[in-house]
Structure formats: structure tokens, C-alpha cells
Amino acid sequence: MKHKIKRVIQKMTAKEIIMAMVEGLRNPTTEINMNTYGTSVKGICYGCAATNTICSIANIKHNELLKVFESNRTQSMNIAFKGENFRFINSFESAIDDLRQGDIDGYNDYAKYLEIATITDIEEKLPVLRNDYTEKKLEVYVRLAEAQ
Q1: What is the dihedral of CA 89, 127, 21, 35, to 10 degrees?
Q2: Integer CA distances (angstroms), 135 to 27, 39, 84, 143, in order
Q3: Residues near 15 by Cβ (< 8 Å), separated by ≥ 6?
Q4: What radius of gyration, in Å, describes the C-alpha atoms of the chain?
């Protein structure tokens, strides 16, 4: 896989980043488990919102992801994103994790550090997206994206 994910993410608008998270959860590459942060167990690749956001942005398919996560995640991510700064990818995942928890300030702190688009908060309270997230909860994030 030859993705220049850092460059791609840094060029994305806030709306595009939010929608990549939403699309990653609507059409996940992995089995959703918000507590695993991208692991593979007996051929099942588990991931959180952040894992699926990166897969959505990088257009990574499930079979490619299993190869990435079949051993040590940090080592595998470094191999998968050759030439990329793993610290960037790891921090971006943390930003998305803050976002899916409705923490815009936490996301924006990472965004400033990563030099990616910041998000302007909306009046509506953002729901925390857990393993049992619903389309109704995702729609709030769509409204957030549209407000950018």
C-alpha cells in the first residue's frame, strides 16, 4: 500500500474529515469495536471510528487491513504507510477518537498540532459514538459536517 495519507488529510476540509468518519462507520472496513483500536484476532479485524476513518480516506479494503494488523499494530502501520510519519497517523487517530466522543476541543487541539482542518462547533450536542451507534447519531455528525 502506497498512501501519502498525511498529505491527503492535511488537504482535507473539516467537512471532508467528519464525513470520512461518518462513511467509515456507515461502511466499516473492520468489525466495529471502539475499544480495540485496530487489532486482528483469529482472522477478524477489529477497529474503532479512527481505524475506519483512515481506511475510508486511504481506500483500504478489509483483506489489505488484515495483512496490516496481523502482527504488532505499530510495526504493521509503519509498514503499511511506508514513508509516513507514524506519529501523525497515531495522533490523527486520537483526534478522530475525540471527535467520535463529541469532544470538538480535543479534536481541535490535535488538529492544530497536525496542521489539519479544525472544526467549528455547533449548538447541537454531539452524541458519543460507541459500538452501538445508530444512523440517527451519525446524522448529528452529518449536520456538524454541513455546518463547516
Answers
A1: 50
A2: 12, 25, 33, 12
A3: 145, 146, 148
A4: 14
* Residue segments in the chain with a per-residue pLDDT below the cut of 70: 1-3, 36-45, 62-85
Distance of alpha carbon 66 from alpha carbon 44, whole angstroms: 8
Going through 1-148 in order, the beta strands assigned E by DSSP cover: 31-32, 39-41, 44-47
pTM of the model: 0.85
Predicted confidence at residue 37, as pLDDT, reads: 58
Tens of pLDDT, residue by residue over 96-105, are 999 999 999 9
CB atoms within 10 A of CB 13: 12
Q: Which amino acid is at 54?
A: I
Give the residue among 109, 83, 84 at the shortest CA–CA distance from 94. 109
